[in-house]
Amino acid sequence: MGDIRRRGAIVLGITGLVAPLTLALGSTPAAAASCTTQAGPYQKQVEKFLGRPVDGKQSAADCKAIKAFQTKHGITPNIGYAGSVTWGVMDLMNKQKAVGNKPNAAGKCPTNKGRIACVNLTLQISWIQDGSRLVYGPVPVRTGRNGYETRTGLKKIYWRDIDHVSTIYNVPMPYSQFFDGGQAFHSVNLSMWNPPGSHGCVNMTPATAKKYWSLLKNGDDVFVYGRKPGT
To answer: Which of 58-72, 76-90, 160-174, 177-191 has the lowest mean pLDDT?
Structure first.
């Protein structure tokens, strides 16, 4: 993200460049070819998630399906091995789906603030509510990786820049809405499940970032809570 000039002060931004869900990589076997023949420790879980026959044995078709998933979401090495990172992303997807249309069922995000953007770091989801009424979401997001965690607590959007460009990383940050130092909502052209995480910002798909831009304004509250896996 770039230097933020607000009331004459310069605030250095920290943007997310590489993605949600930091998990231990563990060991993966060397592959002589582009697709490994070895079954991974999460073979059955991964097979079930992908709708493959659940036998715990690696087949050429299993490897092709796993490799396609890894490639889509930027998981490396993308050799079709059912390891901890691949299953961690799938498990997170399952948990996000289970939330349904009740992201604040536990009541963690304040309902007495009017319109507020909520960020659940544990589940890597965000939504906008007005009181107890759900306005938009929940949607998957990518928050800060280990060492660059998205800070928790109640904040406010204080600066918006639709065409922001990072002067630190020299990358575009469309639809930036800053809410804590240099941390902001903004769009990225990467999978929301691309590990290991951002550099502190809450990354969104372009469609979601545009929607947040239309629904929020300076002064609106943001509440961040939970803890991202692996941080």
So the answer is: 160-174
Residue 74 CB burial class (10 angstroms; 0-12, 13-18, ≥19): middle
Beta strands in 49-195 (DSSP E): 115-120, 125-130, 133-140, 153-156, 159-165, 172-180, 183-187
Predicted local confidence at residue 168, as pLDDT: 76
Give the closest residue to 114 by CA, choosing from 134, 103, 128, 130. Answer: 130
Q: Which residue has the tokens 């902001």?
A: 184
DSSP β-bridge partners for residue 204: 187
Could you report the per-residue pLDDT of 70-107, keeping only the tens digit for each?
A: 999 999 999 999 999 999 999 999 999 999 999 999 99
**Contacts within 8 Å (CB) and 24+ apart, 62-68:** 63/35, 63/36, 63/37, 64/35, 67/34, 67/35
pTM: 0.84
Using CA atoms, how far residue 175 sits from 51, 157, 172, in Å, is: 36, 13, 10
